[in-house]
Amino acid sequence: MTSTTTTARRTAPGPRGVPLLGSLGPWKRNTAEFLLGLQRDYGEIVRMQLGPFTVHQVSDPDVVRHVLVENNGNYVRGPLYEQFGVVMGKGLLTTDGEFWRGHRRAVQPVFLKNAVNDIIPNIIRATEEMLQDWERKAAAGRPVDLMADMLRLTLVTLSRSLFAYDIRPDTALLKTIVDDVVEVMFRRGVPTEMLPSWVPTERKRKIARIHRVFDRVVTEVRRSYARTGEGPLIALMEQATDPATGRPWTHQQIKDELLTVYLAGHETTAVALCWTLLSIAQHPHVQEELDAELATVLGGALPDAASAERLTYTKMVVDESLRMHPPIWIFPRAAVGADTLGPYDIEPGASVLLSPLVSHHNPRHWDNPLAFDPYRFTPEAIRERPRLAYFPFGSGPRQCVGNYMALLELKLIVAMINQRFRISRVPGTSLQYGSPVISLRPLQDVMVSVVPRERGAAPRAASTAPAAGTGPATDGTTPAADGAAGTADGSAGAAGTAGEQGAAAPAGEGGGTPPAGCPHHP
Ligand code: HEM
């Protein structure tokens, strides 16, 4: 697939839309349903008009690979990413070319597979703190706001691990700031935005508040680093130089990148944790198999780097959760020059939309895509699938820099919570995506009850672990199950790598293409 100058243009199929607006109406009403419907009705390469933008949704794995990997040089962030810049300035997520390359090189070392094991003590400490709070809530019969707790947990872990900064006093404030970030980046086009730039508006007030808060955080992080020399990522940022000027990064560069990592790194992982824990609670056979692995691999001990490697079923559960509920469920690119997507031509400037959610529900590669089945991620099953049928972390040079960190956190936190607690959804709590804007977080608060499995038996450090098989008893309360489980295909083994993988075939709940909102949870 290379650039083409053919005169007879081959245009991908897609909805006609209405004059001027194109398909903006159905896009705004329910974006997830609309995009899933496009794949169902038009196939794996679909052309649509969204106001002034010509957009191609691609879910054919070969074409996804073409855009993200093989011809990635022809694709930049583009206009659909511009709104991120309002908050994140010029950071890894929002820039391209040499500027991006220099920054990626500078921060990459702390995110490499071997380096991320250093954060294990921080993951364990923050999770322990949360679980102690859960003990108190359980004893008092109080429910837990799962998404809020996961956000706090991932934020505290990230901040301590990368910046050696205790962000706990700010977590409540930062939760409202993250809500503001989403709002100011995506609620544009309201009439007040047409006013002259000097007129104060609610949106401008919120943008100013976001920057005030992050100015303070970055100043405190830098001061603390100057005092202690601690924090592996802030250390790299303080030592980095700009390849264009040879000068150290400016305060603004450090602030933009710090903000990018805080925002990109904690909410995504929290969303993934939330869906993974709920999926386990809804599938008793998954819970049972997970319990068996935790007992065999960990005994009653806390996980460490070595035992985490052996949590192969836990990893498969996480992989399947990231398939069904990919936290970053769409992301765009813009073509610099003309190109072909499969058999179709696209013009310079055309936007391309990659959707892990749509690709991960493509019935050509995922049998019964609505069934939750961790056995889709055995090494054999992965080998049978095209790699880019699955890309929760993107792919190619712009693949998520934090993917190993996220997977490590997910595995350890899921293991620690399940060693100690049973979770069940408080009746009446509904789970819907709604029209998600950035991440696929549940639309409403998710209230769960947490019940300790074995009172008074907190896991020991790994060095004091007993022989396998003597771990926590599996006599916890039965979790709520509001959907039949997908059946496993029986093959066992380690899960695949971060990022991209390939397909297997269970049977179970639902089937076909998912409907509106969150298709899996009533
Ligand atoms: C389950 C958790 C996570 C998911 C699903 C996720 C997903 C993604 C995806 C899909 C992209 C690629 C976007 C694109 O190509 O346009 C991305 C990029 C990025 N992610 Fe993550 N992410 C997660 C966790 C993290 C963590 C823990 C960090 C940092 C601590 C992080 C930092 C970043 C950054 C800085 C980028 C931009 C990379 C670049 O363009 O060079 N993410 N992430």
UniProtKB/TrEMBL annotation:
CDD domains: CYP132-like (cd20620). Transmembrane segments: none annotated. Pfam families: p450. Keywords: Heme, Iron, Metal-binding, Monooxygenase, Oxidoreductase. Residues 1-17, 458-507 have a biased composition (Low complexity). PROSITE patterns: CYTOCHROME_P450 (PS00086). The keyword Heme applies. Residues 1-22, 456-522 are annotated as: Disordered. InterPro entries: Cyt_P450, Cyt_P450_CS, Cyt_P450_E_grp-I, Cyt_P450_sf, Cytochrome_P450_Monoox. The keyword Iron applies. Belongs to the cytochrome P450 family. This is Cytochrome P450.
